[in-house]
Amino acid sequence: MAFGRIPRFSPSFSPVEAAISLRWLAQGALDGSADTAKVEEWESEFARYIGAQHAVMVPSARFGFYLLLKSLGVGEGDEVIVPALTYFAIPAMVPLLGARPVFADVGLRTHVLDPDAFRAAITPRTKAVVPTHLFGTPCDMDAIREIAHEHDIQVIEDCAQSTGARSRGQRVGHLGDHAYYTFGLTKNITTLSGAMVTTDDANVAHSIRSEIAAGGPTSRRKLAKEAATGLAMWAATHPALYWATVHPAVVLGNKLGEDPIHDRFGEAERRYDEIPGYYYSSSKARAVQAAVGLHQLGRIDDLNGARIRNGRHLDGALAHVPGLTTPEYPPGSEPIYMSFVVHHPRRNDLMEALRSRGVDTTVGYMGAFGDHPLFQEYAADCPNAARAFDELLHLPVHPNLSPTDRDHLVEAVRAACLSLS
To answer: Each residue of 139-152: pLDDT tens digit?
Structure first.
């Protein structure tokens, strides 16, 4: 245990991936066909893991989502249903094609798209729906798929936080028509940035691949910087260092009304006038990303397994803590606990109380967009998303939690909640 100090997250990136990165980055002449061959190997293995026919590496999840919509012919006057509790960049992509994002409410404690809210949001103009497996919790895909098929609506799964999760025994990403994933340093699988799109539709895959192939390669300097950042994150969250370095900075920042980790990895919410040009100019993945991804894919089930053990422990241990509301999971859902998200009416006070007890937490990066200034012309009544946004708090659930850490975490939460009751 980190001397009673527990980081909010710990990266899947490790010194092993750092060594892989260094080896491939050192091969400076490795471009063109060699890069392509390694990336194709990675795409093939990822598709096999998900159970999809095709996988295409893209520079970011939001760009992959945009290309998916474009390949499906989404355009002027069409509507795309998205959950009201989501990341701003997803609904921000929809108007770029002349379509409208339509916000549908989530389950208050599941945090994922409510099938009844999805059905109520459908109009004759609905072209696609985006069930987001938020926080590693799969949506009720049987219900969503049945509703979508009734109305000839394309189902695009958002798996940005759920790679490896299952619903009724099947991995997410192969439960709808198409899916996208992201592999940033804070995810449960990383490729030094980048993302993936999977589909069984050969035409969709070809369309996206053609767009990506027209661009240039990802910058080696950027990838080297990501590898260095990943290694620094691993070291900073290691028990030998975290208690004396990062945690004091987080506590101090909290007292000053700041969150240095949130500020480092977050970005300002905004709308887009057009797709950023660098997505096209540096769209092609490098062999180093593929090599890291292949190694990570070999570890992901073990890493997810540790998350699941920790999450299930917290499910039971925190179920009856005064003032605290723990998560619920849709029928058939087998979450990977990318995050363990609780609710408390005094969320900010609880966050401060936990940090004073050595447990770092975060409110995360999601927003409630049913009634948000950024998308005011698309406003919809989504009370569950609004309430969840005001009350939710992420507790540490990462694979590097030891049994002692878990016990300390549970006791810290109980003590903090009792102090606020």
So the answer is: 999 999 999 999 99
Q: How far is CA 196 from CA 180, 227, 293, 377, in A?
A: 6, 19, 11, 31
The secondary structure of residue 273, as a DSSP letter, is S
Do 32 and 164 meet the contact criterion of CB atoms below 8 Å apart?
Answer: no
Tally the domains of the chain: 1
| Backbone dihedral angles phi then psi of residue 224, each to the nearest 5 degrees | -65, -40
Q: Are 409 and 316 in contact (CB under 8 A)?
A: no
Q: Identify the three-state secondary structure at position 127.
A: strand
Strand runs (DSSP E) across 219-291, as ranges?
none
Chain mean position to CA 239: 25
Coil vs helix vs strand at 49: helix
34-60 burial: b if 16+ Cβ within 10 Å, else e: ebeebbeebbebbbebbebebbbbbbb
pLDDT per residue over 191-229, tens digit each? 999 999 999 999 999 999 999 999 899 999 999 999 999
| Angstrom distance (rounded) from CA 376 to CA 16 | 46
CB 413 within 8 A of CB 395: yes
Residue 233 · residue 264 · CB < 8 Å: no
DSSP bridge pairs for 368 = 85
Please classify residue 213 by burial: count the beta carbons closer than 10 Å to its beta carbon, then call 0-12 exposed, 13-18 middle and 19+ buried.
exposed
**What pLDDT digit, counting tens, does each position of 227-241 carry?**
999 999 999 998 888
Tell me the average pLDDT across 52-59. Answer: 97
Alpha-carbon span 131 to 326, nearest angstrom? 21
Residue with tokens 């093939």: 44
Cβ count within 10 A of residue 109: 16
Percent of the chain with pLDDT strictly greater than 90: 85
Outline where DSSP puts E strands in 187-339.
195-199, 333-334
CATH number at residue 298: 3.40.640.10
pLDDT of residue 1: 42
State the burial class of residue 33 (Cβ atoms within 10 Å of its Cβ: 0-12, 13-18, 19+).
exposed
What does the angle CA 179 – CA 183 – CA 189 come to, to the nearest 5 degrees? 100
**Closest by Cα among 161, 153, 213, 215 to 178:** 153
Residue 74 has a CB neighbour count (10 Å cut-off) of: 22
Which tens digit of pLDDT belongs to each residue from 331-364? 999 999 999 999 999 999 999 999 999 999 999 9
Q: Which domain holds residue 230?
A: 1-421
Whether the Cβ atoms of residue 22 and residue 288 lie closer than 8 Å to each other: no
